Sequence to fold (260 residues):
Amino acid sequence: MHKPTALPLAALLYLCLCGSLELPDEMPAGTPLHFAEEANWPPFTQEAHGMASNGLSYELLQLIGKRLQRPTDLELLPQQRLMQKLRHGEKDGVTMISSNAERAGYLAFSEPVLNKRGYLYYNVERPLPLEFSEWRDLQGLLIGIVIGHNYGEEFEKARRELPLQVFEVVSVQQLFQMALLGRLDAFLAIDLTAQELNEQPAYKDHIVHAARPYMQSSYHLGLSRQSPAVRLLPQINQAITELKANGELEQLLKRYGIRP
Fold:
C-alpha cells in the first residue's frame, strides 16, 4: 500500500481556508470518485462511449485514485454533455482539460499534468502550403474546430474581431476526414491528438501542420466546484507531484507516445 506523505505548506493552508469558503460538504474517506472524459479522443481515450477500461486518462486516474485510497471510474461522453455534467456537479471531475476564464467559473484546476501545442493542420495536396503568423492569415479560409474545445483566448478574440469562417464539428477525426476530402481549408488541433491520428494509414503523409503553433498550454485535472471532490485538490496535486518525482507519470506518457 502506498505510504502517505506529508502535505506541502500550500496544501495545508488550502485546507485551513476551506472552512471559511463556500465549498460543498466533505467527501467521506473511501468514497468513489466519478470522473468523465471526452470519448474517442486519442491518445487520452480509445473507446467511443460508456465506462473507460483503458487509455491514458483511465490509467492516470487509477494512479491518482490509488494514492488517495479511493475507487475511481471514468465515463466517456460527448464534449458538450461532459461540460454540462461538470457545471452541475453530476461528475466529480474531468481527467484532461485546459484552463480558461470561462471554465474556471465551474472548475478548479490541478497542477499541470503535461504540455500541449496547438497547430493549424491542412491537406498537403492543397495548391499552396499554409503559413500562420497571425490570425489575419486565415481570413478567406474555411477553418474547422471541435465544438466545446478550448483553442485559447487569442483565437476567441480573433473570432470576435475578424471575419473568420469557422465550421464546428463534434470530433477531431471529423476534421481530419473533411480536410482529406477537401471540405475544409484547414483546422485547429492539439499536437498530441493529431500525432496519434496521423499514424493511421488514411491520414499519414496527407495531413500536415504549419510551422508555428498558434497556442502553447497545458492539461490539468479539473474538479467540479459543485462536487465535494473539490476539497481533494491539495491531495490530487500531491499525487501528481509524486507521480512526476518517481517517474511514473513519464513512463505512462511514453507508453502513449508522449514525451513530457
About this structure: The chain has two domains: 9-114+218-255, 116-216. The chain has nine helices and eleven strands. The first strand starts at residue 33 and ends at 38.
